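Supplementary Note 3. Input sequence used for the single-chain structure prediction.
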Amino acid sequence: MSPFEKIEVIFLYKPYEINISINEISSLKLILKNCSLEEAFSTKKYESENLKLFVLTPKQYQEKHTQIKTFLRHGENTKHVGFLIIENLNESKQNRKKNIQENNKAINVFNELSAPYTKNHFMQELKNSIYSLFIYASSDYLSSFSILRDIESNALKEISQAMTSKSFLAGDFLNLVLKQSMKISGADSGFIIIKKGLFDDKNDIKESNKLSQIKNQKFILKYKINLSQKITLKKEIFDPKKSKITKLLCEEMIGISWHEESNIIVSKNKKIKSTSSPLSEIDFDPKHYKIKSYCAFPIRLPSTEVDGFIILLNKKISEDLILDKKSDIDNYVTHFTAHDLNLLESLANQSGIALEHAKLIHDLKQVFESFTAASIIAIESRDPSTKGHSERVATLTVALADAINQTPTGLYAALQFSKIQIEEIRYASLLHDFGKIGVREHILQKEKKLFPFELEKIQSRFSTIQDKMYINILESYLNSLMLKKTNPTEEEIAKIKFEVKKVSEKLENYWKIILDVNEPALLSVETFEKISEIAGSQIIIGENSVPLLTPHEINLLSIKKGSLSQQERIEIESHVTHSYNFLVQIPWSKELKDLPEIVYGHHERLDGSGYPRKLKSKEIPVQAKMMAITDIYDALVARDRPYKKAIPYERALNILESEVKLGKLDAALFKIFVEAKVGELTLEASMDDRPSSVA
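The predicted structure, written as discrete structure tokens, is reproduced below.
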């Protein structure tokens, strides 16, 4: 099938009167014209379906050689123009020019006819030239068609690869679709517009009626490409209530196209409506630019909801053309073909699938973000004293990852975290303490070595001992008085008071020591000896010996550091295993599959002294090593907690440095942490974050 509709034969010289029928020449429409070269060249309007054959003499060709070359270079498609050169029968033989043989091949000269020649001979050469031009142009068309199909297939390949890529991003994909749409159609400008708030949490338009669907719809510009001149969209186009084109796309949900010659908007080969001002919602310099053709397609989700649209302006006859002025648009801009429209509609549909894909990913991410936020609330409700800790650790660990990405030298110079890996680090940091929901609440919130009820029990015991001892002494003296049958002397009463006071003072002193030792501070040797003294002390009441402390109380008060006993510490440390056992149940994507292991390793230490698995350096993920630093740092500088006081920034770094020197924390990571001043990011939040209440 040929794309050409007609062949114009333009006689600049005609030796015979001729009348050629259509059937004699070809199935194409044949148009014979008599005019001057200036008249033929003055019309530069591009008509891709037309061919032109010029009949002229060697003298005309030579005289107009420069003008012909300029026309072929700047006027119509070179492959659509040919020349038949015939000698002028009226010229003398010596005046006939025959010296253009060498130039013919480069400038589309198909035949030369030397005088003398008959009318039949002339007619045969004319027919041969017409056929030659047709074959020449058709061959070029087929070659161009093949190149175009290669461009189209490559575009479709790139788009399909982008859709199936692991690193698929809706924004990047839409930008690719716009670029490829312009490339395969030859458009001079293009825009992709999507629904405002498409990926916002509150966007939930589900009305079944199309008019109600677009009632409150607005759009925003996502991407634009201008190849020739500055072109912008007016704000009206983003509101279907103000833009006819936008409303049409949303209501009809099918593509539309427009061309200057027809001056009507068509969709699926049907007339929609006339317009004398195409795309009035677009701004450009009217002195140098105009819209001669455009097309637009809705981006529909599989649910049929219109979530955006593509607009392409001015289809150029060649991709590398620059439309500097209006005349260029007249000469080099044509209409979008039916093939263009079918292909562009397919790309718009692909964009809809991509948006649906991105929307699903966005919704899933929002669900997970909500789950993560709810998990943090659950953690903090169990342990209010650590409010804000998870978010601050996430901020610090992500900042440390960014700092590592910017580090050009050292052990981690080659380490680069991708966007999804940084997301993995963020989620792991936010959920690293989730297992605390599996730890008993009273242990999580234990402020001192003894629980309040345990301290009250000792206080009650001391009070009971005092009372019993006082009663016992009084009973012994009463018995003595009854035997003597005399009143007690002042010395005897003083002795009773002294013994009671002696025991009371001893118990009061012991009580003060117990209160002091009960604090979760570091237990000194001197204090330990005092506890040992109390533990070894017994009060003799009559024939009975009463211990002041039980073995359990002695064990708790002998804790060297902090407020937790060995068993309680084991239970607290079990939160890491609880976190892992919970997180490993979630079907993480391949990109996030290491998240449970990162959480599992954040309390491990390089020398194997960490918990719960006693891993050593090479067995610990680098992300867990990073979180080990940020977790300890935040615990140190965070506001006062029941079991410790907040530590100044520099002091916290010194403590971390000592842990590095002991071989527990990674020296290279700590160096990056310090040099990038990562810790300063959360200092203010650490001090200002106060829980509203502590259960």
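The chain has a mean pLDDT of 79. The chain is about 50% helix and 15% strand.
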